[in-house]
Amino acid sequence: MMKKLLLLLLFSSALFAYAQEEDVFDEDLLDLSLEELLNVQLDVSKTNLSLRETPAIISVINRQEIANSGARDLMDVLNLVPGFSFGVDVQNTIGLGLRGNWGHEGKILLLIDGMEMNETLFSTTQFGQHYNVNNIERIEIIRGPGSSIYGGYAELGVINIITRKGSDIEGVRVTGMYGFGEGGTYRQVGSFSLGKSFSSGSFSLYGDYGSAQRSISDYTDATGAVTNLTDQARLRPASLGGSLILGDLSANFLYDNYALETVDQFGDIEPMDVVSFRTFYSNIKYKKEINEKLTVTPAINFKSGIPWGVDIATPFGWNSDDYNVYYHIQTTRLAPSLLVNYTISENADLLIGADSYFDNATATTDDGSTDYFGDSNSVKYSNIGAFAQSVIKTDFANLTLGARVDNHSAVGSAFSPRIGLTKEIDKFNFKLLYSRAFRAPAIENIGYNPDITPEKTGVAELELGYQLNENSILSLNVFNINIKDPIVYSTTGNAGTYDNFTQAGTNGAEIEYKYNSDGFNLTLNYAMYTSKGINEVDLYTIPGEDKSVLGLPSSRINGLANIKINDHFSINPSFNFIGSTYGITSIDGNLNYVFEQIDPRFYANIFIRYNTGNLNIGLGLNDLLDQKALFIQPYSSGHTPINGLGREFTLKLSYKLGF
Q1: If you average pLDDT over residues 387-393, what whole number do you get?
Q2: pTM for the whole structure
Q3: Which of 110, 269, 467, 494 has the fewest C-beta atoms lying within 10 Å of its C-beta?
Q4: Coil, helix or strand at residue 653
Q5: d(Cα 486, Cα 504) in Å, to the nearest integer?
């Protein structure tokens, strides 16, 4: 490894010498002042209020912060946001938890340019060298329910990714990343972005391709069987996307072909499968300003794919002999919508919308049977929703009133209201919010259990913020989340099912401090939760412990600093402190799961970045202390923890050729 590191340093030194000859500097990467950060125009909130007054608890991560952090993938970015944690589901897939709640299946909405990334069968998203971070302009995150506007998948949160458009790129940028450690090569990923603006709009094209290891450690299942995961848990991202803007008309598309190897399956070690998620996403939106008060935006989204596919197809040259399970379901979703913004007066506006989706799924079975979904190999479901929201500005506070009505073809109707009081008063701001959320069961939730019913969630939040000076701000938010009839997955052997439980949820607090100046930026945040008195799902509970849920840490601290040496060179340390966590580690002689408390972990990273605008060079050292990321299953289903990669050296090179 030392030889590789030496070669890496020599190669980088040569590139540094070349880069110093360049005089071009990318203006978009200049430091933003704190005032600019607080007044950024938000897409995700659907209001014209500032960040401090918008009726949601929101985190915004800009391109500069992503670049400075040296993020290898979207997991690295989200690990810096308060409340987020990751856990293992099944078949080597990693999902997301938020504020102590397992949000992997349909509780957290992930959008890229308005396209819904949650797959249609189980409504999950998959993390680990997935979703290209090199073409992101900004990420807007609602840490709380967004269902009143976005519908079902936004029950606990919304992650809204906005990619770089043609006017942001103005040329071609190519990026390569190589990572290695004691176990050899950990990742090799390349990406590109191409874009150009013209008189009436712009176009862009972007994509990525590569491979990465999930782990090089031993995996011990609950029965005590052991296997080493090196070259048995690889990740293979591949995507191609783009956008076209012509005046008021915009269109986006993304083809995502993400595949991974799995031997951990549903907990027990079994022969390797390759699980693929192949989906085409697209949307078209026409935003028409009728007059200075009225804007009408019709849109249509479409996605079609084969999620969780294990079949005779052979992605990326893997040998088809590796496959031993056949699962192949083609899904489509067509989702038209209409949004109307009306400015009633200087102090009041109205947002009205209607949306719907039409889902289809068709199964191809290995034995030729025609009754996968009961009496047929295909099913169809639909949902029609309507919502309204008004923001009224007064001297005392901004009052937000909103509600959404949904009617699902299989599970009936629901009403989801929201109310908020927000205000910025000099250096102080407050937000008092309450929202209801509705999540209809996904296709396979119903397929596994036809008697399944929707989840209904209520969330109360309070945020207090104070701008300490022109460079720094401190904010505190507290929350209470109560999920009625939560839909929970469990397995027996390789058979899974879904059931409604009585109640789940958490309450807790998040504190964040931001400091921004010309030469130094710092973000620190702390998040904690407790499930005591709320959680009644036994698959989430830990024997003898009623304050924490399985798999998700009850507290964590994140930090990222940017130390700017000059206009080109910066040093960027970051860290994650993960509090005590509980996981299932084995089965005892009575065939009962053994739960163990896992000690706190501290992950320290540093990324050194040299930027000339045209050429960017980054050297990173992740997990300096070699703690190894740990992915624990956040529900009791017999899956023991997976160790992620440990200490990793990374080199990121990016070069732009302007048009």
Answers
A1: 94
A2: 0.93
A3: 494
A4: strand
A5: 7
DSSP state of 387: E
Tokens of 584: 């299932």
Q: 407 near 440, Cβ under 8 Å?
A: no
Give the model's pLDDT for residue 9: 38
Among candidate residues 508, 482, 393, the one with its CA nearest the CA of residue 145: 482
pLDDT > 80? residue 7:
no
Beta-carbon count within 10 A of 50 CB: 16
Give the SS3 label for residue 44.
coil
Q: Give dist(CA 192, CA 238) in Å, integer.
A: 12
Higher per-residue confidence, 451 vs 591:
451
Q: Which residues contact 384 (CB under 8 A, 6 or more apart)?
A: 354, 355, 356, 406, 407
Contact 572, 69 (CB under 8 A): yes
pLDDT-based confidence at residue 438 (cuts at 50, 70, 90): confident
Which residues touch 325 (CB under 8 Å, ≥6 apart)? 273, 310
Helix, coil or strand: residue 199: coil
Instruction: State whether residue 113 is helix, strand or coil.
Output: coil
Contacts for 201 with CB less than 8 Å, ≥ 6 apart:
166, 244, 245, 246, 247
Integer Cα distance of 302 and 287 in angstroms: 18
As a whole number of angstroms, the distance between CA 375 and CA 359 comes to 18
- The answer for residues whose C-beta is within 8 angstroms of residue 96's C-beta and 6 or more apart is 78, 84, 85, 86, 103, 104, 108, 125, 127
Q: Classify residue 72 as exposed, middle or buried by CB count within 10 Å of its CB (0-12, 13-18, 19+).
A: buried
Gap between the Cα atoms of 181 and 190, Å rounded:
19
Integer-rounded Cα radius of gyration of the chain: 24
In single-letter form, the type of residue at position 46 comes to K
Mean local confidence (pLDDT), 41-57: 81
Distance CA 203, CA 187 (A): 30
In single-letter form, the type of residue at position 647 comes to R
- 651, 178 in Cβ contact below 8 A? yes
CB 448 within 8 A of CB 471: no
Q: Are 307 and 292 in contact (CB under 8 A)?
A: no
Q: Residue for token digits 């998959």? A: 126
User: Closest by alpha carbon to 406, among 441, 445, 377, 362?
Assistant: 441
- Residues 37/516, Cβ–Cβ less than 8 Å: yes
Dihedral sign for Cα atoms in the order 149, 155, 156, 160: negative
Residue ranges of domains in the chain: 2-658
The Cα 130–Cα 98 span in angstroms is: 19
Kindly compute the dihedral angle of the four CA atoms of residues 119, 121, 126, 130, in this order, to the nearest 10 degrees.
-40
Q: What pLDDT score does 493 carry?
A: 53
Superfamily of domain 2-658: TonB-dependent receptor, beta-barrel domain (2.40.170.20)
Q: Which residues pair with 569 in a beta bridge?
A: 610
The first and second tokens of residue 317, run together, are: 């040259």
Task: Select from 190, 189, 179, 181 the least CA-distant residue to 216.
Answer: 181
Q: Give me 279's structure tokens.
A: 């989906």
Task: Count Cβ atoms below 10 Å from residue 632 Cβ, excluding itself.
Answer: 22
Angle CA 531–585–121, to nearest 5:
65
46 backbone φψ class: left, alpha, beta (φ>0; ψ -120 to 50): left
d(CA 607, CA 407): 49
What is the pLDDT, as a whole number, of residue 639?
A: 93
H or E element at residue 148: helix 147-150
